[in-house]
Amino acid sequence: MDLITRRYNTIENISGPIVFASGLKSAIVGEMCSVTLRGGELRSGQILELSGDMAVIQVLEGTDGIDVVSASIEPSGELASAALSEEILGRTFNGMGTPIDDLPEIIPEKYADINGLPINPAARDRPNQFIQTGISAVDGLNTLVRGQKLPIFSGAGLPANELAMQVVRQAKVATGEEFCVVFGAMGITSREAFFFRESLESAGSMERTVAYINLASDPIIEKLFTPRIALTAAEYLAFEKGYQVMVVLTDMTSYCDALRVIGSARDEIPGRRSYPGYMYTDLASIYERAGRIKGLPGSVTIMPIITMPEDDITHPIPDLTGYITEGQIVLGRGVHRKSVYPPIDVLPSLSRLMNNGIGADNTRKGHKELSDQLYASYAKGCDVRRMVAIVGEEGLSELDSKLMRFAESFESEFIGQGDVERSIKETLDLGLKLLQILPKSELTRLHN
User: In angstroms, what CA-CA distances link 6 with 39, 72, 240, 323?
Assistant: First the structure.
């Protein structure tokens, strides 16, 4: 060890992106450090764990070219932080917060620890204000509320990214309030990154958006930093600058896969399907940063995208996410095969905070009753459709035929709106119009 610079030539072992070094005195968990290679090349690292005399350090740029004899570790004395200023709006950064849009570095107003702090439960304000997404299946049946965490559960090949961008373009809050979007992408391809940038710029949304983009070719460790930097920026804009902030995180499956790789490199005992046993806690440390704080005008609403491996909603990633979040929007492959866009399967979809954000003060009187009736009638229509596959249409009663007709119209007209934006009034009016297909005796959930 160099006593003047705190530089340690004590690397004992290397495993994947992880370096094990001994003797790091006065170091702390989470501290950033520099790794110096033979020839003077510098790489960044973070201390993940201190156990006895051994430090576990993740190297952000990877460990290729590092040898245990000549490389050295130098703790910086600082935790991972993000540079923050309102100048970040309209800018694009990599997963570590470095600008990648060929514009100058921002002049930070402050630096903040990317791990943040949990909101004191006593200081949390109840989410009860409607966010209009312009998408009928969300606004009418699974309403999004400020401060909520509402994930999109998707399958491989389904248009989750397109739906997320549509929400970003169309989302609206009350007139006169500042609204912005923080976009965090993990492990996406260059083509997907181009799609996101093009979508934001063509819609004129870029000036109110901050994008943190980690590509599939970037170091795997960067995936773990991206959502935390994005949420640190969101908290700054919401709770210090008064913005209503929507955070879109895609794809949390890529984030969890990175956790699994790091856990394997650290020789941790795996949990379900080889994912770390602490994955629930780790995901909660991200999702629970959504919310509102009493006395402050801003809010952080999180909409993470989860690609379900093999469309399995019981997979550990969507399963644990469902325990933490307040509902889910599920994209259905069966609906997608019918060329319905957005292919939202409303039956397993749910917004647990919906009742807080609808009604006469937010949307319209009778919204809840209409939503319940649409859901119940569609569920009956789907049951009839399954029965038809067995007995054929000849065996249907007149009511069954109307229920099946309603289900088809509901999918093609209410859910399948394409790229068209609908106001909440248009959504609810369309729902009432479609219910006219059914006899009044079936509309038991409507009071008038």
Answer: 19, 10, 36, 44
**Whole-angstrom distance, CA of residue 130 vs CA of residue 139:** 9
Task: Determine the Cα angle at 437 with ends 433 and 443, to 5°.
Answer: 85
Residue 156 CB contacts under 8 Å (≥ 6 apart), including other chains: 307, 309, 311
Compute CA 186 distance to the chain's CA centroid, rounded to the nearest angstrom: 10
Can you name the residues that pair with 293 across neighbouring β-strands?
124
What is the secondary structure of 17-35 as a DSSP string? TEEEEE--TT--TTEEEEE
Q: What is the pLDDT of residues 265-322, one digit of tens each?
A: 887 888 888 899 999 999 999 999 999 999 998 999 999 999 999 999 999 999 999 9
Rg of the chain (C-alpha set)? 25
User: Which CATH code is given to the segment(s) 11-79?
Assistant: 2.40.30.20
145 forms beta bridges with 130
Domain map (residue ranges) of the chain: 11-79, 82-356, 367-442
Retrieve residue 295's tokens.
């006395």
Task: Name the residue among 429, 321, 335, 443 with its Cα closest to residue 382.
Answer: 335
Neighbours of 350 (CB within 10 A): 17
**DSSP-derived secondary structure letter, 54:** E
- Tell me, which fold does domain 82-356 have in CATH? Rossmann fold (3.40.50)
Q: Model pTM? A: 0.90
First CA to last CA distance, the chain: 80
11-79 matches 82-356 in fold:
no
CA distance 419 to 170: 10
- Residue 291 backbone dihedrals phi, psi, to 5 degrees: 145, -175
